[in-house]
Specification:
It is a multi-pass membrane protein. This protein is mainly α and 388 residues long. The chain has 14 helices and two strands.
Amino acid sequence: MGNNNNISRFDWNLAFILFLFFCVSCTAIYSAQHLGQYDENFVVKQIVWYIVGAAIAGGVMLLDSDQLQKLSWYMYGLGLLILTFLIVAPDSIAHEVNGAKSWFQLPGIGSLQPSEFMKVFLIIALSNVIVKHNEKYRIRSFREDILLLFKLGLTLLVPWLLVMQQPDLGTGLVMIAIFTGMVFVSGISWKIIVPIFSSIAALGVGILSLVVYFPSFVKNVLGLKTYQLGRIYSWVDPYNYSGSDGYHLIKSLNAIGSGMVNGRGFTKGMVYLPEGHTDFIFAVIGEEFGFIGGSVVISLFFVLVYYLIKLGLETRNEFNSYLCTGVIALVSFHVFQNIGMTIQVLPITGIPLPFVSYGGSSLMGNMFAMGLIFGVSFHYKRYMFGSE
């Protein structure tokens, strides 16, 4: 009886959505391998990572909200410890790749990016902060809201600084997106949220304007790296930087454009795409399966996010609702940034397409996040109009 009950409590709908992503991922990576730049079989490796990710999700699913809350600061502390060690680790186990020291090189396993797990630890820690604060201050005033915002900001700041030390701008932006999404649902008054985030947005636009029109000031005063500035310039005018920073974007635009409505066909891609199996996997999909194929993939992400929103509203556990919010912010920003950078809507950053791009760390981190969602379904799912 117990086993049957566990089977019925398992979220088969979410499992099916992830299975569809698995099929999309393997198909797209297999296509990318036919571009002639690879001598490895990344599809087999991706299948292995999916199996490992499923095991991680299964283990996390067994933890209920009380256990996660008790473990939240241990997980958060572990993440900070690993990120700190990454900075001081010798080159033999953590050497720079493309100017960033973001990966451990582990024998027999390959590269492992700890910041992918830190993003999920951050979601759990922020959820715990909000719940504890709301339990303590049932009647809220301006002071209590500012105090909560300060707590959340401090929780974000420490791992964010460690990630930016690598430097890894993409992951830093994801962390900010998670923080922003969770602040919006934390109960903090909009009279506080709107002025603060409007000011931050205005500051961002101002810095972007400085990068475009006063690059020397930005490099000398703000300390941005030359390669980071190059990404901005190549985003605004990629054809002027076709031999350097704009190369990837031009290739991506050519690939997606050549796919038109129906695509060239499976494994019939002709545009050489560096990193086609990782960051630019959507360009491969766009070329070979066209507008229709790209729309199907985007629709699948819409289904996933809709399902997460629905689950977050249905659960009657406050902590789990915040977990769902954090995962929604994580997935949504990844999708928006990754697809946006392939079609010149956003600058290029090293952010993969969740569940589709090849990469063990990314996939394990995302499956870790899905483990939290499976746990919500397994332990606490309730229907708004259902009986107790």
